[in-house]
């Protein structure tokens, strides 16, 4: 645990021991159990809510205890105090030679700790027949079963062409808003689980989801917001903004309002990674929009 505390999870191969250590929460020796709890709490300090999916299957009592401990350290923000190469100072790329002495550690991604799930092989065999049923309740049930399969944090790459073509048709043409809402949720899960591997599909779904923002019901709007965020995370900033900007001129006030909110969320999420010229054009378009409101 000392190595994790000093070097951070980017430098320590947490994946190699963390899940085996979790099993020791059942150990008969209280000292062992407490040591494991301290390890989990230490990792939480580094990755915060990123740890949730890793401890979801432990006993409810243990989970409750850990969550209570998490609250006590929720405001703790850690940085490495030691670095690969033996230095106790962070790499300084502005000073000649310093970067050569210390190996800069890449940012830690909690998802690197888990294996991707092959969801394609788990698609319910009855989905394709269920999704074309005349009763909306049966179509909704088919999509709900599919959503359960797709709702996993890390998805293995595969052939999603057929299933996404089917989902796209549902979103664009199904007359029941409850069915559409679940279909949108399925897209969100795939975008979150596949991440950059979903980029080829994300660019196709973004316009479709923007169009659905005209709906009035809260459930579908909230699902669309989350789906837009997920799809946008799979694409570069320029592509996302180029798709979003035309919707500032949409006839629907709801679409325009939600587009402004989306752009705000997206700009915050990418931070200073956005190209300066893109930010300038974006600000100019937003100013034009505000003048017409």
Automatic annotation (TrEMBL):
Q: What is this protein called?
A: Cytoskeleton-associated protein 5
Q: For this chain's UniProt record, which GO biological process terms are given?
A: establishment or maintenance of microtubule cytoskeleton polarity; microtubule polymerization; spindle organization
Domain annotation TOG: ranges: 112-291
* Chief location category: cytoplasm
What organism does this protein naturally occur in? Answer: Thelohanellus kitauei (Myxosporean)
Among its keywords, does the record have Cytoplasm? yes
Q: Which InterPro entries match?
A: ARM-like, ARM-type_fold, TOG, XMAP215, XMAP215_CLASP_TOG
Which keywords are on file for this protein? Cytoplasm, Cytoskeleton
MF terms from GO for this chain are: microtubule plus end polymerase; microtubule plus-end binding
């Amino acid at each position: 645990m000392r190595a994790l505390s000093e070097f951070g999870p980017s430098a320590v191969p947490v994946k190699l021991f963390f899940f085996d250590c979790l099993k020791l929460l059942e150990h008969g020796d209280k000292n062992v159990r407490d040591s494991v709890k301290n390890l989990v709490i230490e990792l939480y300090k580094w990755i915060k809510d990123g740890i949730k999916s890793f401890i979801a299957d432990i006993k409810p009592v243990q989970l409750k205890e850990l969550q209570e401990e998490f609250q006590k350290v929720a405001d703790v923000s850690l940085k490495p105090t030691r670095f690969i190469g033996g230095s106790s100072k962070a790499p300084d790329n502005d000073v000649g030679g310093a970067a050569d002495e210390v190996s800069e550690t890449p940012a830690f991604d909690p998802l690197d700790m888990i294996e991707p799930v092959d969801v394609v092989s788990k698609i319910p065999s009855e989905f394709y027949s269920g999704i074309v049923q005349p009763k909306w309740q049966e179509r909704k049930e088919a999509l709900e079963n599919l959503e359960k399969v797709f709702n996993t944090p890390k998805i293995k790459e595969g052939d999603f062409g057929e299933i996404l073509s089917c989902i796209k048709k549902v979103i664009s043409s199904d007359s029941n808003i409850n069915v559409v809402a679940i279909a949108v949720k399925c897209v969100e899960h795939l975008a979150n689980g596949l991440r950059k591997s979903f980029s080829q599909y994300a660019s196709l779904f973004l316009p479709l989801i923007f169009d659905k923002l005209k709906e009035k019901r809260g459930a579908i709007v909230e699902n669309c917001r989350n789906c837009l965020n997920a799809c946008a995370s799979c694409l570069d900033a320029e592509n996302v903004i180029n798709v979003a900007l035309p919707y500032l001129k949409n006839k629907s006030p709801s679409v325009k309002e939600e587009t402004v909110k989306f752009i705000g969320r997206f700009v915050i999420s990418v931070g200073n990674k956005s190209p300066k010229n893109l930010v300038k054009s974006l600000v100019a378009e937003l100013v034009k929009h505000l003048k017409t409101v």
